[in-house]
Amino acid sequence: MAAGKKILHVEDNLENRILIRRLLMSENYEVLEAENARQAINILASTTPNMILMDINMPDIDGYSLTANLKSRPNLNKVPIVAITANVMRGDGNGFSNQVVMDILKNRSMSTSSWIKSLIL
């Protein structure tokens, strides 16, 4: 089970946050939510999640910039950050842990719970 595992979801779209929250809570993850980068930074000042799900297009600071900021912090640089976006991803080396997820989705080889566990354990 995912008891005790926290996932921060950074997403400005309410409907997307609701969808991801329901999915993760059905797998017993604790879900933290930020609707923009500034809220995410405030949340991360007091807690370290096991994983961060990151929107790319946000109104204040984009997901690429926020990811670079977070990866430069010693307490967060090992936390997997997975981009969740409707846009095509820019090249490798962007700090995201998406290759694992892309491989899983392409091959449909793991359940949602299994791929999350593979990144945060």
Q: Could you list the spans in which at least 5 consecutive residues all have pLDDT below 50?
A: 99-105
Most strands sheet? 4 strands, parallel
In terms of structural class, how would the helical and strand content be classed?
Answer: alpha/beta
Could you tell me the radius of gyration in angstroms? 13 Å
CATH class: Alpha Beta
CATH architecture: 3-Layer(aba) Sandwich
Q: Overall 3D geometry?
A: globular
Helix share bin: 40-55%
Find the CATH topology.
Answer: Rossmann fold
- N-to-C span: 12 Å
Topology order in helix (H) and strand (E) letters: EHEHEHEHH
Instruction: Summarize model confidence as the mean pLDDT.
Output: 80
